[in-house]
């Protein structure tokens, strides 16, 4: 039995930041760095023109010197605010109210808090006290697809349930001038802040993706390729020189799972231009088929776990023909791959 995904709704950070502004900020804070020229080249070639932060670039918790406590608290507070707005919009898009929801699945990796996003949203949205909860806190960029997988699992066990999926990330919390590696500069330009939400059900409420199969894969011996790190200055995102190859190294397992099934459209995690193009090529698709991922990256940046929800939202603006088979594929630290296969329901 398929799990039906209603139209996603996303909320972006309030402050638009251009790549030129980030390049200028790096020049200001690292004027004498011997690799400044290389920093600026990678920033300008990351595939992102604009991105949105919840707070201004020069605020203490972004380009300033706030400590780990202030940064982490600000990130979680902003994530909750955005997620409430995205969830409310997703409920409206599905024609539902808070009282209709039986379970909530959340993903959030950029601000530490106990209780986490799931409990905060139960209170803020007025969900029922008996709402089932799954809170994902470490899957990061793969979080959107992982959450949809968990929602599909819930619907398979309880076909009448309506599951609210919410992703919220404040990746600008990792924008930190205490780190001066070339990887840190790439992530300054790549990451952005947003929240996204969607409803998953056992019966279709609207047009959209119908999930028929799911896939999770951890590439052996790659836990260090992408990783989060905390110190007194805040959260940092690190990677190794092998990191850019990890997605392509996972494709044989992905294709083995697909086993020749048709892929007429794809929502690909917009982690980088190379990640998008390599995945599209592996799936037998051209650049046009990957345009929603490429446009998301260029206009809004890498939104972490929210990314796939945003790409699916864009897909609704020019949907595939009814019945077209397709996939959603995302990648995260671990190195992990999460994927869905299904068809477009109209």
Automatic annotation (TrEMBL):
Active site feature: 141 (acyl-thioester intermediate)
InterPro entries: Chalcone/stilbene_synt_C, Chalcone/stilbene_synt_N, Polyketide_synthase_type-III, Thiolase-like
Pfam family for this entry, one: Chal_sti_synt_C
Entry annotated with the keyword Transferase: yes
Domain Chalcone/stilbene synthase C-terminal: 218-339
Keywords: Transferase
Record bears the keyword Ribonucleoprotein: no
Annotated Chalcone/stilbene synthase N-terminal domain residues: 41-204
Any Gene Ontology biological process: polyketide biosynthetic process
UniProt GO molecular function: acyltransferase activity, transferring groups other than amino-acyl groups
Lineage top rank: taxon: Bacteria
Family: Belongs to the thiolase-like superfamily. Chalcone/stilbene synthases family.
Name of the protein in its database record: PhlD
């Amino acid at each position: 039995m398929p799990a039906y995904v209603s139209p996603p709704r996303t909320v972006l950070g309030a402050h638009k930041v251009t790549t030129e502004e980030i390049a200028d900020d790096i020049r200001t804070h690292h004027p004498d760095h011997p690799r400044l020229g290389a920093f600026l080249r990678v920033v300008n070639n990351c595939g992102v023109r604009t991105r949105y932060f919840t707070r201004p670039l020069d605020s203490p918790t972004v380009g300033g010197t706030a400590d780990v406590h202030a940064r982490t608290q600000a990130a979680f507070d902003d994530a909750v605010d955005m997620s409430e707005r995205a969830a409310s919009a997703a409920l409206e898009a599905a024609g539902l109210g808070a009282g209709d929801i039986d379970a909530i699945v959340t993903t959030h990796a950029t601000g530490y808090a106990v209780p986490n996003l799931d409990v905060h949203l139960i209170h803020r949205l007025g969900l029922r006290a008996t709402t089932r909860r799954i809170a994902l806190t470490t899957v990061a960029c793969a979080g959107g697809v992982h959450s949809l997988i968990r929602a599909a699992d819930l619907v398979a066990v309880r076909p009448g349930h309506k599951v609210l999926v919410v992703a919220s990330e404040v990746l600008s919390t990792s924008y930190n001038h205490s780190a001066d590696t070339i990887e840190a500069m790439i992530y300054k330009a790549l990451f952005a802040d947003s929240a996204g939400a969607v409803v998953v059900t056992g019966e279709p409420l609207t047009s959209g993706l119908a999930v028929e199969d799911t896939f999770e894969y951890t590439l052996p011996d790659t836990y260090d390729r992408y990783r989060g790190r905390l110190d007194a200055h805040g959260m940092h995102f690190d990677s190794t020189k092998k990191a850019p190859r990890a997605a392509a190294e996972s494709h044989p397992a992905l294709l083995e799972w697909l086993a020749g099934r048709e892929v007429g459209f794809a929502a690909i995690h917009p982690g980088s231009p190379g990640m998008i193009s390599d995945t599209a090529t592996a799936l037998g698709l051209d650049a046009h088929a990957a345009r929603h991922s490429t446009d998301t990256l260029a206009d809004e940046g890498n939104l972490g776990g929210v990314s796939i929800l945003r790409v699916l939202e864009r897909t609704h603006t020019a949907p595939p023909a009814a019945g077209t088979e397709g996939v959603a594929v995302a990648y995260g630290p671990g190195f992990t791959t999460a994927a869905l296969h299904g068809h477009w329901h109209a």
